[in-house]
Amino acid sequence: MKILYLCHRIPYPPNKGDKIRSFNEIKYLSTTHEVDLACLADDPGDLKYERDLKEYCKKICIAPLKPLKSKAKSLVSLASNRPLSVGYFYSGILQATVNHWLSSTSYDAIICFSSPMAEYILNQSTNQPINQSTKLIMDFCDVDSDKWLQYSRDSVFPLSLAYRIESRLLLRYEKRINQHFDHSVFVSQQEAELFLRLYPEARNVTVIPNGVDYNYFSPKPTLYTDPQPKKPIKLNKLNKLDKPNELNKPVNQQQNSPILLFTGAMDYYANVDGVIWFCNEIFPLIKGEFPDSQFFIVGSNPISKLKELVNRDGVTVTGFVEDIRPYYQMADVCVIPLRMARGVQNKVLEAMAMGKAVVTTAKAAEGIMAADGEQVLVEDTSQGFFNAVSKLVKDQKAGKALGTRAREFVAEKYDWSTNMKKFDTFL
Which of 212, 244, 303, 304 is the most interior residue, by most CB within 10 Å? Predict the structure, then answer.
């Protein structure tokens, strides 16, 4: 079959939540189908990855997205009573390419990844007419309209108002997509049920869970290509990541110095909020009981508020790293203190696949269905989170047993190839 795949960010490298899912969808579909990819890139450095995607896609169009210009377009979109997100991710260049491909190729299916990409199909004033036999599949992943509602509750005016308006407009847009497309896909049962509560008339709603490459994310360090970081004697004091690569160099080993780890894109609002909450309210309690403890924040594009955390005793902000597995390997406990979360958190799955003891919140764990106390520890208060981490640090045997059960759970429930087979029922 011929498939046109539209996504709002270039799906390579698969180093953050949405890109991990979109890449694995393309990878799976390309094994038995012919895939053409149209996407956006908000980082000019990502344009070089087109060559990596050619292994999976016959035709590729990557349209540059300039954040400042896109923010201006999003305000115009809002003034037209349309979601900010739709204006932000709309590109005339990409629309022209999509129109051309639709006029020259008879696609059996079109898959849109993330709701703003539906605009390239719904914008009938400029779109090439689509064959009635073409299947339209929307992978919402999460109910983004509810995510913006969460943001509004955690923000102050005028952002709180803007976020509430975006939530309302985006929900209306999501409803429109559901009626126009043949299938609506969500990443977890919780997300699907939430959408059905918000829109009881929704039709053809399906759940396709995320997965994790548990062969790649393996607790066996012999599989790694990069040197394994060592436990630090003390924090490497570099001012605000002026030389971020130096933070990634191995440092001296020290025993009885618990290592805590958080991974994720560090310009993402929910990640930033969770890490700052952890550093302000939980890590000081941990330092009080374990003075030599270290907290590693590993992920690309840390914003200024996070860079400033390197001035705190025991906190290391790495910035981008080529291979995240050595950091998982050295960690005693992986902490995912997200107070706002939607769908399935890949960072939780990766830590579990690495056989690590994980302490997380109910919101970050709900899409995974892991049992509290059996595969992860779930706490939502500062004191409870501290108690859970403290317990695992003191009882390393219990932590290893928790990590072993976590890896077994992931291998059974979250295999990419198994989960992606649900696309075959559509195609």
Answer: 212
Q: pTM of whole model > 0.90?
A: no
Q: Could you tell me the CA-to-CA distances from 394 to 38, 256, 400 in Å, in that order?
A: 50, 10, 12
Q: Per-residue pLDDT tens for 98-124?
A: 999 999 999 999 999 999 999 999 985
Q: How far apart are CA 299 and CA 266, in angstroms?
A: 6
Instruction: Work out whether the CA dihedral 184, 190, 193, 195 comes out positive or negative.
Output: negative
Residue 140 token pair: 């919402």
> Among candidates 208, 179, 219, which has minimal Cα distance to 402?
219
Distances (CA, A) of 298 to 16, 20, 335: 12, 17, 12
What is the rounded distance in angstroms from the CA atom of residue 422 to the CA atom of residue 399? 34
Candidates 266, 264, 254, 392; CA nearest to 333 is: 392
| Domains of the chain, CATH where assigned | 2-208 (3.40.50.11720), 221-413 (3.40.50.2000)
pLDDT one-digit tens code per residue, 269-280? 999 999 999 999
